[in-house]
Write a structure and sequence with these properties.
The protein is globular. It is mainly alpha-helical. It holds the Pfam family DUF1295.
Length: about 270
């Protein structure tokens, strides 16, 4: 059996087993919202499992992938855990389970925990395949460029989350649209940062032939962030709840940071 097949197979089993255990916890406490925190922590788990399964992998590349994933994942996991404990159950999951036909626990198992486990496994391919022994060995300019991109992503995501938390923590901002700091240049600095991190990790892995096949990971994550569960879902809700959001859309880039546009009153 090729080593990479063994590695991704073990990681798949670990993730599914972990998701089943977390699902049982969600049944006991009556809330699935903490899964968002594990979404981030799960990548750290995969990175460490892969690290120990690939003792013959390139040490420098393995350390680079492990370090970046750990810093990004633990920071985001901690932030999402804090937000859950502060704000309570996520309205998205409440709505999903409220519309469930039949047993809502089965819906949460299949459409929340197992689904996120599979998605996490695919997105994490750069961290998995990038650590498997492959040619050429060593780290060159492409990996360092990827590391720089990932660091930029961590900056955008961390600062964006901090700015939003401060904004929401001020009672005077209730019902208002956040358009300050990084949010002045992109409507989703946190999602943009997320994408930068995983495209950066892909560039580190892509120095090897095997790592090139990990491109499915950042492509899937970017789709999730832009078109499915990230920006698209959030903006549909904000358009309904905040009348000022349409004007914010007209003057602010949707994803990639850009200077604000002049609001002409025409929908972008």
């Amino acid at each position: 059996m090729p080593e990479f097949v063994f590695v991704i197979g073990v990681n798949f089993a670990v993730l599914i087993g972990t998701m089943l255990a977390l699902w049982l916890i969600s049944v006991a406490i009556g809330d699935v919202s903490f899964i968002d925190s594990f979404w981030a922590a799960g990548f750290v788990l995969v990175a460490f499992v892969t690290h120990f399964l690939t003792p013959d992998g390139d040490a420098q590349r393995k350390l680079l992938l492990l370090a970046i994933t750990t810093v990004w994942g633990l920071r985001l996991a901690g932030y999402l855990l804090w937000r859950w404990r502060k704000e309570g159950p996520d309205k998205r999951y409440v709505a999903l389970l409220g519309k469930a036909k039949g047993n809502p626990h089965i819906t949460s198992l299949t459409k929340v925990f197992l689904l996120q486990g599979v998605l996490l496994w695919i997105v994490s391919l750069p961290v998995q395949l990038g650590q498997v022994p492959a040619q050429p060995a060593g780290v060159s300019w492409l990996a360092w460029a990827g590391a720089a991109l990932a660091i930029i992503g961590i900056f955008f995501e961390s600062v964006g989350d901090w700015q939003m938390a401060r904004f929401k923590g001020n009672p005077d901002n209730a019902g208002k649209v956040m358009d300050q700091g990084l949010w002045r240049y992109t409507r989703h600095p946190n999602y943009f940062g997320d994408a930068c991190v995983w495209w950066g990790l892909f560039l580190i892995a892509a120095e090897t032939t095997l790592g090139l096949f990990a491109i499915a990971g950042p492509i899937l994550l970017t789709f999730l962030l832009v078109q499915w569960s990230g920006a698209a879902l959030l903006e549909r809700r904000l358009k309904r709840s905040r009348p000022e959001y349409e004007a914010y859309i007209r003057r602010t880039s949707s994803f990639i940071p850009m200077p604000p546009r002049r609001d002409t009153g025409e929908t972008a």
